[in-house]
Amino acid sequence: MMPRLIRVAILSMVLSLPTPQLVGEEKVKETSFYPLQVGTTWHYRRGESKFTVRVVKHEKVGDVPCALLESKCDGKVGGREHLAVKDNGVYRYDVSSLFKSDKPRLKTKEGEVFHTQTLKPPMLVLKLPPKKGDDWKIVSQGEVEVFRGSFKVDEEQEIAVPAGKFKAFRVVARDVEGTALSPAPVITSFYAEGVGMVKQLIEIGDAKTEIVLEKFEAAGK
Asked: Are 124 and 89 in contact (CB under 8 A)?
């Protein structure tokens, strides 16, 4: 199972989601700040541990075409989420994590049980296009809890990670609730055009955890 803080970084939670319908001719909208083509893969490192996030397919959640992303650590899927791009931003429609239950909602090929929590309304992850000074609040109701937080975009800056140097917008999320952590973490994410998230810093009190991009694989490459 993925480390606890990595699950927080993608806000992996629990409980039920209706089975999504496959997208027909409708396509998932795209943004260069969060590439969502099938096959797009991010390789991250957190301390000594490594994990990947990959766009595995496009499918509908309700009537909205979404990209399904899976997070893997040591070859095992530890989290899932559906993302969609609208004209004003990138939205998270649900989050999933491994969960023990005698009434499994969804099983992987390996027999692992996943429970998914639908977010109503969907959670705005990143305003588009990113612009210094943009801020917003989220209040998204899940089946068992409410997700809250305040986001703000800082100016674009150059940062260096193992994958290279990038100009990235710094997005700070404060007063984040729904992560099962106390005190509420401050999550700072860096988004670079053409790549997506290249770095994330999770601060819980005096404890800090850094996630950095080691490699980015664009779809079809």
From this structure: yes
Contact 198, 188 (CB under 8 A): no
SS3 116: strand
Token pair of 211, please?
A: 């996630």
- Residue spans per domain, the chain: 4-217
* Alpha carbon distance 98, 102 (integer Å): 13
75 class by beta-carbon count within 10 Å (0-12 exposed, 13-18 middle, 19+ buried): exposed
Per-residue pLDDT of 133-172, as tens digits, reads 999 999 999 887 788 999 999 999 999 999 999 999 999 9
Q: Are 90 and 125 in contact (CB under 8 A)?
A: yes
Percent of the chain with pLDDT over 70: 78
Give the Cα-Cα-Cα angle 29, 33, 36 (nearest 5 degrees). 45
Question: pTM for this one?
Answer: 0.82
What would the two tokens of residue 55 be? Answer: 């766009």
Those residues with Cβ within 8 angstroms of residue 182's Cβ, 6 or more apart along the chain or in another chain: none
Enumerate residues 6+ apart whose C-beta is below 8 A from 25.
none
The widest CA-to-CA distance across the chain, in whole angstroms, is 49
Thinking of the domain 4-217, which architecture would CATH place it in? Beta Barrel (2.40)
- CA–CA gap between residue 37 and residue 83 (Å, rounded): 11
3-class DSSP state of 179: coil
Token output for 190: 């860096």
